[in-house]
């Protein structure tokens, strides 16, 4: 078996590092973009009816997907162990919308694994405990009915998730805040970034100019 020359290996390593750096820059840039700013421009990529545990929570990161198709969710532990730091785990639990697959213990494990946040297309539990943890959690609903270690645990890692006319895949960019959730393909995120940044600047300038002539404390608490 022929081996790559040292220069080729170096070039491959440099290219990989550049890709990682560019991805980190993209994530950082979108931390300044509100989900509603994206919603001014795009429909595709919006994930409906998913909101954070508290309005202050927000997260931007690269998606890792998982699909749960059983009452037993124990294999989510293996999913957590496979996630990379700063990823956002997106779990499709729509096979049973009334049964919570995520709670305090899994959130503690997610923090230990370095996840940036978790989005559940389904229900979560332990709401009071989750509000105290330093991990943004987004979900459809809260439920006291939970998954159980009964029967086989069917969890598909890196599953294609079809929702609202689009396909969410591992490697996509997720932007989530108090107004909702968007998931963008990386090429779309790059293509629209400058437009989104312009909208953000225009909105800020509009507000700043207004309060040059008005008392801000008459409008905000």
Automatic annotation (TrEMBL):
Its cofactor is Mg(2+); a divalent metal cation. InterPro entries: RraA/RraA-like, RraA/RraA-like_sf. Mg(2+) binds at residue 126. GO terms for molecular function: metal ion binding. SUPFAM superfamilies: RraA-like (SSF89562). The keyword Magnesium applies. CDD domains: RraA_family. Keywords: Magnesium, Metal-binding. This is Putative 4-hydroxy-4-methyl-2-oxoglutarate aldolase.
